[in-house]
Amino acid sequence: MPIAADDHRLDAAYTAAPGRYSDVSYRRAGRSGIPLPAISLGLWQNFGRNRSADRQREIVTHAFDRGITQFDLANNYGPPYGEAERTFGGILARDLAPYRDELFVATKAGYDMWPGPYGDGGSRKYLFRSLEQSLTRLGTDYVDVFYSHRLDTETPLEETLQALVDIVRSGKALYAGISNYPADLTAAAADYLAAQNVRLLLHQPRYSLFAREPEGALFDTLLERGIGSAVFSPLAQGLLTDKYLGGEVPEGSRAADSWYLDGSAITEDYLTRIRGIKRIADEVGLPVAGLAVAWVLRHPAVTTAIIGASRPGQIDDAIAASRVPLEDAVLEALEEFAPPAGSSL
To answer: Fewer Cβ atoms within 10 Å of its own Cβ: the N or the C terminal residue of the chain?
Structure first.
């Protein structure tokens, strides 16, 4: 059982669980030498100044105790911007420093980070300076993978990709990644990097039972090129849970607190879909969130599903779901409540 946030043991020195690699399965990231856990912990939300430091520490160390080795960050995760990296850096220094070589730490740059023309996008200046700032906040001299967080149509693609090449060659990132790139430019990026003897290790797309755009061209490209994927928002920002089955937004829920989701998403169409998914989840013996995670992981292009967590039990639930294979009949039944492959709600 997870310990309470005010438990005195949180003040004691941390020692990782001896059996931490027996809980979660690992999947090869494309045709690379890197296996990643089927579940990764994302620090997009719940790791800003608006959350308890003790709870943040408990979530991160619990994840590692369960075998989650990949921790996914970005320069502007918070709030405020940079705070998630500072938080993780503090936990790394206090608890996880002896285990740094067992961790796979990811960060990104591409969206708004600081004022002026050089604090956003895909320019060489922005990517290099953002990574330097991230390393300072994290308190480490390298990250395992550094992503171009988005395609910047105002910057030549070659400039962005050459910056990734030079970052990897500098040793400040071991691998390069991209996020939110379309299939054709993913292929172009893979070709450019390969010509420079740099592997495009991971693509990070949004993917869930309600957001199926990657199915088709993008996932086909990843499989053909041997690129892994770390998919985010597998629970559709909390919509693929049982929180909103009653048609209301509970206090403290993602739709009540998030900038990215509000009560307008709780439509009659959504309620019809989520109630249908709930019936199938009950038949399978999984919570709705667990079924959503298992559904994402069924796809051969998916290396790992990045989940957020506001309490340790959510990590346990996701790991349990990652072990559940879904039968064809279940997948066929879910199609009634999902958008067609290649589209989203």
So the answer is: N
